[in-house]
Amino acid sequence: MSDKVNRSTGVPKKGEPIDHAWVPLAKQPLPAGRPRSWYISHNRRLKAMRLAIALLDSGSFGPDQATNEKIRDTAEVIGVHWPSDATCRMVRRLMAAQR
Question: Origin, by domain of life (predicted)?
Fold first, then answer.
């Protein structure tokens, strides 16, 4: 492991290795000038991805196992705001997606 760990560097440059994948990258501001609907859908997608990953880590491997109640309980556990019905649908769609 490298002694040079700079956790606030943000997004790594192209070709630069990520030494500590478990350390969250520093947040960067969203681009300015987009319509409000873009920011809303962007943040909804981020929340849905966080919830889908948490559900997969907890053992819910299919969208049929992810009820709205289970998704909302998971949101409380990981510390994100209560998801709407639309976000819960998006979580199930992410879990059902074929790679």
Answer: Bacteria
Is 19 among the domain residues? no
In sequence order, which ranges of 1-99 are alpha helices (DSSP H)?
36-58, 68-78, 85-96
Is 17 among the domain residues?
no
In a domain? residue 47? yes
Alpha-carbon gap, residue 4 to 8, rounded angstroms: 12
Tell me the pTM. Answer: 0.70
What total number of domains does the chain contain? 1
- Residue 96, SS3 per DSSP: helix
- The residue segments making up the domain with residue 79 are 36-96
Summarize the chain as % helix, strand, coil (round to 5).
Answer: 50, 0, 50
Task: Look up residue 18 and give its two tokens.
Answer: 């990520």
